[in-house]
Structures are given as C-alpha cells and as structure tokens.
Amino acid sequence: MKRLVTLFIWLPVILFASTTVSSGINTKDTRMLSQPALSANNIAFIYAEDLWIANSDGSYPRRLTIDEGIESYPVFSPDGKTIAFSAQYDGNTDVFLVPVEGGVPKRLTWHPGNDIVRGFSPDGANVLFASQRFVFSGAFLQFFLVPVTGGFPVQLSIPSGYTASYSPDGKSMAYTPVAPAYQQWKNYRGGRISKIWIYSFADHSVVKIPQPKEGCNDADPMWIEGKVYFISDRNGEFNLFSYDLSTSEIRELTSNKDFPILKATSGNGKIIFEQGGYLNIYNPASNSTGRLTIGIAADLLELRPRFVQGNSYIRSLDISPTGARVVFDYRGDIITLPAEKGDQRNLTLTPGNHEKYPSWSPDGKNIAYFSDASGEYELHIKSQDGKGESKIIKPTGSGFYAFPEWSPDSKKLCYVDNARNLYLLDTNTGLIKKIDSDALYSPGAFRKLYSDWSSDSKWILYTKVTETYFKVVYLYSVDQQKSFPVSDGLSDASDPAFDPKGEYLYFFASTDAGPVVNWFDLSNKDMSLTNSLYLVTLRKDIISPFAKESDEETVKTEKTEPEKPAEKKKKETKENTQAKAPEESEFIKIDTDGLRDRIIHIPVSAGNYSSLGVGETGEIFYIVRESDPSSKATLHKYNLKDRKDSEIMEADKYLI
C-alpha cells in the first residue's frame, strides 16, 4: 500500500502545453466574440477576456486592453468617443473609461464589491452601473450613476435592478429587476423568470412588458425611439423582440432555431447581438440582420506553445501492480514515473489531444486510458513501456467516459459514461455490455458506479442510485450477465469491496442519510450523516467471523502406534489423488439467494467514513473524518481476526 500524499513532492516533467494557433482559430472569421457594443463608427466587444474595438463593419479589429484580469460589458458614450467597461486591473471588478483611440484606462469606482457597467446617462455625463454595495443579503443588485469626471456614485430610486436602458429623454428606464436564472437553467420558468419593467422617474410607476401565461425570460432591454427592444425565449430559443410603447404590440424580429442570442445592446439606432459565436447587427429601419466578419490574429497566451511543469497539472492516477511505477494523466498526457530509480516516461506525447483516466493492468503489461485523438473519446490500450501502437476500442455510451478498471485476469474492463451508465468491455473481442445505470442524476461530470472485481474476475461489485436517492449495492455475475441486490435500499450503501479469499464482501451503509443526500436544495446544510461498516458472508456455509468464541481446555491425546509403511503409503496416495482434483478454490462461489439475510454489522462505532478498501484477508482500510470539514482525515485499519480497529496515519486518499 502506498500513501498518495507522499508520492509526489516535485515532478521534473516538462510538456508543450499546446499546438499551433492555426489548429483552432479562424483568423479570417473569428468566433467567440462576446458582449458587443455599437456606436456610429465603431463596435466594441470582449475577446479572450480583453476589450477590443473595430470599425462598424468589423474591419480593422484592435485590442484596447490587456491585463491579467477580466474585462467585460463595454458601452459607448452617446458621442461615441469613450468606452465604459468593467475591469479587474487591481483585482476587484470596477468601472473604467478608455478613449476609443486607446490609452490608459481611468478608474471611476473604488468599492470592494463588483461594479458592472450598464450604460451611460442620455447626456453622457454619468456611467450607469449595477452594484451590491448597499445590499446586505446578496440577493439582488442596485443601480448607481458615477460622473465621468470622477466622484461619489449616486444611487437611483429603483429598488433593485440588473440590466437597464434609459429612454432617449432620460425620464424613464426599461430594466430587469433581478439577475436571471436562465443562464444556469435553460428554459427556466420558475419564480426568478426575467421580466422587463418600464419605470417612470416622475411618479415611480412601473409598467411590465406582457409575458405569456406560462412565463418566459425577457432580458437586455434597449430603448430606441418609441419602442423597447429585448431578447426573449418565449418562443423557444432566445431571439430579438420589440415592444411598441404606444400600441403594446410585441413582435418577433429574428427566428434563430440553432443557437440563442446571448447578449444584445443598441447604439446609433441599431442593435448588435451575439449569436452562434458571431456578432450580428439588426437594423430596425429596414428590419434586416447582417452578420459581421471579424478576423483576429493575436498572440493569445492561452494558445501559445509553451513549457509547463508542476504538481498542479496532475489529475487521476494509478499504481503499477508491484508499485515500481505510477501512472497519471499530466495536463492531457499519460506519464509514468518510477518509485525510486529511472526517468519519467511520456507514453502519448500528444499535447494537442486530451488523454485521461489511466489504469494499469494487473499483469503489468498495459495501460488503458481514454483519448480524444480521433475527435471523439475512445479507449486506448498501450504497452506500459510506451512501445508499439495503441489498441483502440470505440466505447459504447454517451460520448464522455471515465474510470476504466481492469479485471484481475487483465482481460476485461469496466467504465462509466457521463449519463451514469456502467459498462463491461472484453478487451480481446471488443464486445461491450451495459451492466446498469443510476435511476437519478447526481452532481459532477461522472459518478464511479463500479467498486470492485472479485479475484476470479467473475463478479463485479457496484452501487446504483435509486429513486429514493439512496445507493444500493449490487453483485453482477459476468457469466450469468445478471445483477443481484445485496443491500435492501433502506439505507445509503457505498464502497463495497471483496475480501481476497472470496468469503466476504464489505460495505458502508448509512441509516441517517435521508435528509443529507438530497443535494438540490438547502435542507441538508445544517445536517450531517454517519455510516457504519458491514460484512456479508457470500456462502450459506460460512460462519460469521463474529460468532461467539469460547476458551476451552486442550485435552492431550495418548500417543498411538506408528503407522505401518503399507497404510502410510495408501494414505499418501489418497491425499495426492484428492490434490490433483480440479481446484474449485480458483473460482469464487456465491450463494445469491438470501444475501440480505447474511449482512452482519462490524463492531465499529458509526462515523464519517469513506474510501473503503481491502488489503490482505481480513484487513479493512477506510478514511475517517470528523464532522468539521477542515479537520484532518486519518487512515484506519480494522483487523477481522483480532476484531480490533487501529489508526495508521493521517491521509486523505490511498491506494492498495
């Protein structure tokens, strides 16, 4: 057993972090331009988290800002000579001004909260921004004006707001009162649907832009003459709509079906919006839309080939069967490292591809991992010394895969996909069998349904999330292609593992997990669960290891006469004949009938346990954590023969 916390102190691994820029960026017609703004002569937008400007037709793009922070939400002043934007030059998100010709940005706000630019006042004397500086709940934002010459911000009389647009005369404002929920939940129709209200500064009255009975999300209001333009998902994807203030008529102006409009702003009587990664301009006068072609060729640091090193790039890993080397994916490459002597070995050398989740075969010959070298993730099996070509198997599943786990005979693999399915793969034939899938989703890209293989490679232990959100332990027979439940579903069971001799299996179970496992709401925030350690005898003839013991006196027997040579030879012949019979011990026998009736509690007090593992027969390892998340975790071992639990060392994770 090796402790992970001491495996890596410093890794002298140096990799090229990327390939050439031409592999992913179209420098003639560039995508991923976001948060656009429009004036009579220019457009502004965010690209690679920097502020850019171009001519109104998209030509001559040039970068106005470059720093380690993020620039966002550019807006042109009414005269088109200045751009207000939010930036993180000094670590915090504040309001800045910069001339369209470029130069040193001027900082206007200094509050430690985030200040998000929303526009200019109609006379151009003030910048409108949203902030939580006077909000103590964190539930909403408020609007403020700060003079372009500098000074103390003044709060508007609107109680809360997120995005806004002044009327041309400055007497009214169209705004959305709360931050939208649809950016997290597509087609959201709950209590936080995004609404547009038209507010009058004179009498503080509010008029809501009508919405369908079933609700919708209206956002990014833009006031142009007698209409308020906005984006809405009332008909499916987000498209551009208009609301006539005099007739209350709502019209759909675009009809995109593939990608939604993500952000729209107005300027010079027109509207610019981001859709499908490109920028488009809508002209209300002609009711026409045109896409801009903007080509950017810049020295983007994220795409520049460079050397990287450090432990922070290490992700999933595995240890070779003898512990001589360790394999891990290091920033998308598969690398092995010796325990003591030798050099690191890069098996893939593909900085342009993404390899992940390496797994070393028990016979020590191969390493399995997933790679997107073909454009889709496939399973690669490569010799552990890096020589020869990889064997490539196209997996069955939803497209993204994780946790390949070898069988002890190195002939099969288990893996999961991002749809919470568990599969069995025969590496010789390439045949794939779906074992099972979770009934409900749980957070995270993947869930490791697989738990353990039996020593004869005939049985698989796994857990399944049921409709109650409790996990149930299952045994899967490779020969019968059938699953058998072990736990009853009335507790949350996890981490099942076989004993090496095949007489027992162990697992955790919690009977107070009900209020805690529900991750979707806040009902579990002030609660914690405990789990206990259990054992299952796999055959009916196996006696419980916790059966009552009794000390008895040993009675000496009298010596008998030595066996005669003929009788001794006859007895040895019989024993040899029995020894040559087929070894049934090579295969584990499991009585699947009545498994639940043979569950036994291991006498260890309930606690916060995880990462159950088995060493030698009767040696059960697990991590113990206190209820305080910041407390240290310790590795414990329970010895079944001695019936004793002992603390081994501090550790967060371990591998056996």
List keywords for this structure.
656 residues; mainly beta; Neuraminidase; Methylamine Dehydrogenase, Chain H; 3 domains; four-stranded antiparallel β-sheet; 2 helices
Per-chain topology:
Elements (H helix, E strand, L loop, with lengths): L1 E2 L11 E2 L17 E5 L3 E6 L2 E6 L6 E2 L8 E5 L5 E6 L6 E6 L6 E2 L7 E6 L5 E6 L10 E6 L6 E2 L7 E4 L5 E5 L20 E4 L5 E3 L9 E7 L2 E6 L6 E6 L5 E3 L8 E7 L2 E6 L2 E6 L4 E4 L15 E2 L5 E6 L5 E6 L2 E6 L6 E2 L8 E6 L5 E6 L6 E6 L7 E3 L7 E6 L5 E6 L3 E6 L5 E6 L12 E4 L5 E7 L5 E7 L4 E4 L6 E7 L5 E7 L3 H4 L14 E6 L27 H15 L19 E3 L6 E7 L4 E7 L8 E6 L4 E7 L3 E2 L1
Antiparallel strand pairs: 1-52, 2-27, 3-4, 4-5, 5-6, 7-8, 8-9, 9-10, 11-12, 12-13, 13-14, 15-16, 16-17, 17-18, 19-20, 20-21, 21-22, 23-24, 24-25, 25-26, 28-29, 29-30, 30-31, 32-33, 33-34, 34-35, 36-37, 37-38, 38-39, 40-41, 41-42, 42-43, 44-45, 45-46, 46-47, 48-49, 49-50, 50-51
Q: Would you mind describing this structure in some detail?
A:
Residues 1-13, 18-22 and 577-585 have low confidence and may be disordered. A four-stranded antiparallel β-sheet has the order 3-4-5-6, with no helix packed on it. The chain is elongated, with a radius of gyration of 33 Å. Strand 28 and strand 29 (325-330) form a beta hairpin. Helices cover 3% and strands 40% of the residues. The chain is mainly beta and 656 residues long. It is built from two helices and 52 strands. It folds into three domains: 1-18 and 312-394, TolB, C-terminal domain (Neuraminidase, 6 Propeller), CATH 2.120.10.30; 19-23 and 33-291, Neuraminidase, CATH 2.120.10.60; 423-544 and 585-656, YVTN repeat-like/Quinoprotein amine dehydrogenase (Methylamine Dehydrogenase, Chain H, 7 Propeller), CATH 2.130.10.
